[in-house]
Amino acid sequence: MQNVDPSLPPRLQEIINLFQNLPEEEKRELLIAYSDRCRECAPKEGESFTLSDIRKDQECTDSVGVFLKVDSENRLLFRMSLGSHVQTLTRAMASILCQGLAGSTAEEVMALPSGFVPKIVGTELVRQRSQTIYYILARMKSACRQLVAEQRRTNVASSTP
After folding, report:
1. What is the DSSP letter of 117?
2. Contact in structure between 110 and 145 (CB atoms under 8 Å)
3. Confidence (pTM)
4. CATH node for 10-150
5. Tens place of pLDDT for every residue, the chain, 161 residues?
6. DSSP state of 43
7. Domain locations along the chain
8. CA-CA distance, 47 to 14, in Å (whole number)?
């Protein structure tokens, strides 16, 4: 029986369930497979976004771009651009989070507890690479906070006589 955490979006819960009962070696193999699929999360040519945040942070070895699109129901689509020096684990988390958070709201992403991460990557990799593992999630949450702040400013400006 799979665990269900009501604080997690259903798509992310499915990915966690996939990883949760795997031995460490199989988790690593699946992480590599997700890392290899990271290109699928890259922005597509001609695609437009509600918010784009491209930068190189101190926590990362290369530039990372977070692209966010919001639909008419305030549901999100994330895309990520990762420089060539970004680590495999960071690429895997980007792929997992783009897929797992698709269709979520900004509020759901911002409220997402980080406790699910060890269920995906395993406790050994969390110990070895704790900064890297949480980096992409932090960037996505930051983009959501930016989005919500911009939406509030727009709402205030449109309601001011």
Report:
1. H
2. yes
3. 0.89
4. 3.90.1010.10
5. 467 788 899 999 999 999 988 888 899 999 999 999 999 999 999 999 999 999 887 777 788 999 999 999 999 999 999 988 888 888 999 999 999 999 999 999 999 998 888 888 877 766 666 677 788 899 999 999 999 999 888 888 877 66
6. P
7. 10-150
8. 27
